[in-house]
Amino acid sequence: MAVSKIYPDAKAALAGLLHDGMTIMSGGFGLCGIPSVLIEAIRDSGVKNLTVVSNNAGIDDVGLGLLLKTRQIKKMISSYVGENKTFAEQYLAGELEIEFNPQGTLAERIRAGGAGVPAFFTRTGAGTDVAKGKEEREFDGKKYVMEKGLRADLSVIHAWKGDTEGNLVYRMSARNFNPVMATAGNVTVVQVEHLVEAGELDPDHIVTPGIFVQRIVHPASIDKRIEQRTTRPKT
After folding, report:
1. DSSP per-residue string spanning 185-201
2. Between 146 and which of 47, 97, 135, 213 could a Cys-Cys bridge form, CB atoms 3.0 to 4.6 Å apart?
3. What was the pLDDT predicted at 220?
């Protein structure tokens, strides 16, 4: 008998997976495509000393900003401090470790980890502070820096639509770091906006095959926040 991947809520979906000192990959870009419901459940669990791999840390009090506020994150592996005041304050005060990566390098490190590639060479950052402490080689007369692939104990991601087998479809900009993180976690848990039965998705539309997804939660509602709202007066 097949074991269902569907869990009733985020707390249940993360049960038995969380422990202090673990590494978690969290999908999304800004607030777009973040696994907000799963992040809230991680906060509520009280797990601490986390290393979190994410492009950025959301904003204050939203997304990963919740885990920074409760000081559950020890280290961020990311490419952007940006809009999060708590992120910047903790970093500047020496209270938070940060491993900065050029954004494309971060994406490729995650992709490489998911593909079983331990390391690769890139020109990005060669000869700069980014390359300090890393191996550099010359190819065709140009310097390249070696970057290591990234994996995590757990990946938490967001998908627009998924079926009961874990096959996933992403929508627009939410197809950012989510697909590569799905492949690079020892366990991947996804929150989906729309859940359908197996066989209902067009195979040509599937981005993440279900083999990479172990647990699924289908929240009754997902609060989609806007990072920056810009308006103009009506004319």
Report:
1. EEEEEEEEEEEE-TT-S
2. 135
3. 81
